[in-house]
Design goal:
Strand order of the largest sheet: 1-2
Largest sheet: 2 strands, parallel
Order of helices and strands: HEHEHHHHEEHH
Strand content: 5-15%
Shape: globular
Distance between the termini: 31 Å
Structural class: mainly alpha
Radius of gyration: 19 Å
Number of strands: 4
Amino acid sequence: MRGIARIVPKEAAYGYVLKTASPSRMHLALRAVLLEAQIMVDREIHQIQRDQSRSGEALTEVELAILTDLALGLPDKAIAARRKLALRTIQNRLLSIYEKLDVNDLLIDTGDVAINKRVRAVSKAMTSQILNNEAIVAAEKDLSSWLARSSFPV
């Protein structure tokens, strides 16, 4: 849903229906979008969005962008430059991301080796489908474009 909101013009109508929707539900969604120019979001998706926004556990748009930059392998300074935010802001947002994704200070075996929180956050985001392959492919293209016009040494 976040991706749809970013690519669809504000004045455009769109719909989001689950794959499991019945043919009659699909017909209603098509009618709402194509004939009535309405925005149509499946009830289940709408409920999940509402629950997450109330819980405070959903990632904000900025946090999602930072998490995507983590998945691309960018260091904090590059993320700050790319997102036009202060380095300290990035570090605070990372702490928030770790908390929301429940990335703990887990230790392996005897406690000698700590798990890399950045990699763990990306792993949890991928397994919970906050990030997916399509989002990463799009982010790679966007990163290439940013690097081409940026003077930031990555």
